[in-house]
Design goal:
By secondary structure, the protein is mainly beta. The protein is 0% helix and 19% strand. The chain contains no helices and five strands. The chain has strands at 38-39, 48-49, 65-71, 79-85, 98-103. β3 (65-71) and β4 (79-85) form a beta hairpin. The chain is elongated. The termini are far apart. The mean pLDDT is 77.
Amino acid sequence: MLDTQLGIGERSIPLAQGVHTLEVDYRSGDRSGDLALYWRPPGAAARSLLPTSVLHAPPLPEAGLFGEYWAGDAPGGMVLTQRLDRILGFDFGLEPPYNVHWQGQLGVARAGEHLIAALANGPHQI
């Protein structure tokens, strides 16, 4: 719809009432803060910053552990990504060394003794 490399910086389009998919691909320039999204809804005289109240992201799944991934050997390094992981025990697709901190809740359907174990090629705590 918009592509500044093609010289298309704004465009008016008809939108039906409801939720529409919005994707933004952005490559930073020389300075920070060089991206802003604007709109002019029907009846408005001038464009204004796109308010966060009209932006909606799909909800995260309820099941999983929230993982925060850092570069380096110890927490506190550069955060590589944060995500909800439904399964632990897969190729994370990251260049080592990195470390991960997961947190969440464990739902137990039946009371009793449960075994919790981990197999890893590096130090870990549970």
